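Appendix B. One record, verbatim.
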Amino acid sequence: MLTIHPATVDDFTIIESLNNSVVNLTSPMDAERIQQLHAMSSYHRVIIQDSQLMAFLLVLGPDCDYDSVNYQWFDQHYEDFAYIDRIVVRDGSRGRGLGTLLYENLFAWATGQKIWNIVCEYNADPLNEASREFHNALGFQEVSLEQIGQSKQVSMQLRVLAV
């Protein structure tokens, strides 16, 4: 059986492990950082299947005191948004629709909150092709291409939900 529910402190160890498994595509997140981001988050959900945490999605709203330059870009350009900070699906479970389930759950939650702008970014150079394909399939559009440091570009993405 598969369920989606709000993340709890009991999930943080597994969330840290999942994040570490793809840290080259996300950013580091130790136990203290998870607690900080969870406290700031407006939406933090996990997928549990057969008592195992399979995936998580962490989202922040506007006006958070978050030090991510990508988040700050969206906070400067949009008044109302849900910023997808990270989504991670357990290795071996990717490609089974778990990420799509989490995003659809987020879209339903955001609609209920009257939040119409869902935003995120993915690496454009070097390209994270899996993330590009995933977000394109879910209707995200590039709104900007931003240089981060000397060696990285990110594609700033927006999905406007139907009003």
